[in-house]
Amino acid sequence: MQGTLCKWTNYMSGWQQRWVVLDGSTLAYYLAATEVHQGCRGSFKVTSCDIHVHPTDHLRFDIVMPGGRQVLYLKASSTVERQQWVVALGTSKQEEEGNIGKLLGPSLDQQVAVRSKMAELQANCQLLFSQVSNMRSAAFSPSPDTESMQEVATLISHTCDKFLKILSECMLLSTASVRGVGTVPATPTDHSRLVVVQLAS
């Protein structure tokens, strides 16, 4: 995925347009699409980052590096475009972590998959909170914008569908992971009961 997004630079320059490219699990940004051949101004591995949707600004989403050492602040041109980027980033993160898990073995593969799904759930949950906030603002404004409300309602519906799908997948993975570990017997075996009786007598 690629396109023009606004990136926060500093308090002097504010938001500036940048050409952003998501290639596999790597997110890179350039000054412009025509300057890609000159090299990127910054790049990040999506798997090591968290994706946060801003709770009040319906165009903004942040990419947080491990430990919060660095944050990439980005803005889309519309709520639809922001949702496309958030979903694409979450999918890329999930696929890459799934590939890593396969190299580590079945049990670790499941653990990585569960963590990946949880991160995707968190991103969609933040997106849903933001969209609901936008709907409230539109509904309670002095002159409600019906067209805007319909657009947000459609986004909320899509986000809910995505959230429920991921939640279902997460529950299946968690159940499979627990079964893989094994269960502790709820009651002593016949042999252990015999030992207990013998000790008691």
TrEMBL record:
Record-linked InterPro entries: Boi1/Boi2-like (IPR045188), PH-like_dom_sf (IPR011993), PH_domain (IPR001849)
UniProt KW Phosphoprotein keyword: yes
SMART domains hit by this protein: PH
Cellular component terms (Gene Ontology): cytosol; early endosome; membrane; recycling endosome; trans-Golgi network
Location(s) in or outside the cell: Golgi apparatus, trans-Golgi network membrane; Membrane
Domain annotation PH: ranges: 1-94
Membrane-topology descriptor: Peripheral membrane protein
Keyword set, alphabetical order: Golgi apparatus, Membrane, Phosphoprotein
A GO biological-process term: receptor recycling
Pfam families (alphabetical): PH
The keyword DNA-binding is annotated on this UniProt entry: no
PANTHER family associated with the record: PLECKSTRIN HOMOLOGY DOMAIN-CONTAINING FAMILY A MEMBER 3 (PTHR22902:SF27), SESQUIPEDALIAN (PTHR22902)
Stated name of the protein: Pleckstrin homology domain-containing family A member 8
Taxonomic lineage of the native organism: Eukaryota, Metazoa, Porifera, Demospongiae, Heteroscleromorpha
